[in-house]
Amino acid sequence: MIITTTNSIEGREVAEYKGIVFGEVVSGINILKDIGAGLRNFFGGRSQGYEDELLVARENALKEMEDRARSMGADAVIGVKMDYEVLGADNAMLMVTCSGTAVKLR
Question: DSSP of 43-59, one letter per residue?
Fold first, then answer.
């Protein structure tokens, strides 16, 4: 399946708009990653634990959106947008959402 942030796909024509599709993932950051990130924040540097968690959440949100588009009979999702938020009283939850338009191509 083609997934793109653009509103068209070069060399292909949209035959049918199936509708808007979403992918959402909310994941908790465990205490060990939180401690490691706190140390990185103090001493400087990148937080590999948080980066890995973000990568997995983003991939899962895109996969969920793709599965929903496929169930609608689409073969592409165009105009994809992604958003990232932290949730919870202590900001210990990461939310990744994506949305786009599911389409059938000629």
Answer: H-S--HHHHHHHHHHHH
CA 57, 60, 66, 69 torsion-angle sign? negative
Q: Are the C-beta atoms of residues 82 and 3 closer than 8 Å to each other?
A: no
Give the domain 2-105 fold. Translation Initiation Factor IF3 (3.30.110)
pTM, rounded to two decimals: 0.79
Percent composition of the chain: helix, strand, coil (DSSP 3-state, to 5): 35, 40, 25
**Mean pLDDT along residues 1-11:** 96
Find the radius of gyration of the CA atoms of the chain: 17
